[in-house]
Write a structure and sequence with these properties.
Length: 175
């Protein structure tokens, strides 16, 4: 009985295919160069071919940066230059992220805080939802003057406040 044996492709072709298909992608040039050199070590390509293959695998962003410069004639120099440029571009991107990040709104000043807290008057405006509690001094004044703790008017208490009752019914809505 004859055995059919499947063998791998010629190792030289696999290495060549690996070098042709290798790209930087989103990783750093440093990581790309390590993988490139690992595969290139198994090839029998000359220095010029390795330099071209390395350059072709770089990201477009890096190629754009290299376009404004004279390309080194040596693979080691191209790798070193590419790593320096890549590090600077990544550093700049981090700077942009931090400088564009939304800043926290400014904290209210002591004067603005005092206006919110002490802004209660003897008007008939009812207490609104989301407002802070009555300051203790205002609460004591309303209790001494027999005023409603909700709206500040005299003649009724908070549990029977007509203003509170109207606000409660209007906020319910109808189905």
């Amino acid at each position: 009985m004859n055995c059919v044996k499947f063998d791998h492709a010629t190792p030289g072709r696999e290495v060549a295919r690996g070098l042709f298909n290798l790209v930087q992608g989103g990783r750093s040039v440093s990581d790309y160069s390590i993988e490139f050199r690992t595969i290139a070590a198994e090839s029998n390509w000359n220095a010029s071919s390795l330099l071209d293959a390395f350059y072709n695998g770089l990201s477009d962003r890096l190629k754009d940066e290299l376009a404004a410069r004279d390309l080194p004639a040596d693979l080691d120099e191209l790798v070193a230059l590419s790593i320096r440029i890549d590090c600077r571009l990544r550093e700049r991107r981090r700077e942009r992220v931090f400088s564009v990040a939304p800043q926290a709104p400014p904290l209210p000043s002591a004067h603005a805080t005092e206006q919110v807290r002490g802004g209660f008057s003897n008007s008939s405006e009812p207490m609104q939802l989301g407002r802070t509690r009555l300051p203790e001094a205002e609460r004591q004044r309303r209790l001494q003057d027999n005023c409603c703790l909700y709206c500040g008017q005299q003649g009724h208490l908070a549990f029977s406040c007509p203003v509170k009752d109207r606000a409660h019914h209007s906020s319910r809505g109808r189905w």
